[in-house]
Amino acid sequence: MPWTQTLRPSRRSLLAGAAGVAGGALLAGCSDGSGSSDADTGVPLERRMREAAVRDSERLLERYDATAAAHPGLAARLAPLRGAVAEHAGALAVAGPVKTGPSASPSASGPRSGASASPSASPSASAPAGAAAAPSAAAVPAKPAEALTALADAERSLAEARTVALAGAPGELARLLASVAACGAVHAYLLTSTPGAAS
C-alpha cells in the first residue's frame, strides 16, 4: 500500500513542532538570572511577567467576546477556545502572588485583583492594555471567515510573544508560558481550519 502525504499538517505534527519551538526557546533561556532588574523596581520579575501575561490573556478574551458578539453563529465554535484562554489567565494569575514574602496571607486574594488594576510597578503597561481593548472590539471584520482569521492572527502573535518571553522567565513560569504558547498555536490552527465540511 503506497504512502500518500496529506496536504495539511496533522495535529500531532503541529503540537510536536510547537513543543519543539517552545522547548528550544526554554533551553536557550536557561541562565542564572543574575540581572538586577528586580531590585530596581521592587516587584519580582516573575510577578511582573505573570501580570503582563494575564493582561495579554484578558485582551485576547475581549477579542473572543467581541467576535462572538459580532458573529453569533461563531459563538459555539469559539466557546471552547475562549474557555481555554480564560483558564490560561487563571493559571498564570494563581501562582504569581504566592511567591511574595512579606504578606503571604493577604496576597492570596489581594494582588490577584491588583493584577487587573494598575500595580505601582507597571502603570504604563496597564494603560495600553485598556487602550488596546477598545479598538479590538470595534475592529471585528464583517465577514465571519475574516473574523476567524483576525482572531487566529491574534492567537498566533500572542503565542509568538510568549515563546520569546521564555528566554527571561524563571523555570516554572517558563514551562507554563511554553504550554500556553503551544496551546495558542493550536488555537490559531483550529480557528483557520474548516470544521467538518467545506464552506
Explain briefly what this protein structure is.
Helices cover 68% and strands 0% of the residues.
What does this structure look like?
The protein is 68% helix and 0% strand. It contains 8 helices and no strands. The chain has helices at 11-28, 37-41, 45-70, 75-94, 110-116, 123-138, 144-165, 171-192. Helix 3 (45-70) packs antiparallel against helix 4 (75-94), helix 3 runs parallel beside helix 6 and helix 7 (144-165) runs antiparallel to helix 8 (171-192). The two termini are 32 Å apart.
Biggest β-sheet strands, sense, barrel: none
Number of helices: 8
Look at the helices and sheets and give the structural class. mainly alpha
Poorly predicted regions are 96-136
Query: Quick one: overall form?
Result: flat
Order of helices and strands: HHHHHHHH
What's the alpha carbon Rg, rounded to whole Å?
19 Å
Helix content: 55-70%
For the record, give the distance between the C-alpha atoms at the N and C termini, rounded to a whole number.
32 Å
Q: What's the count of strands?
A: 0
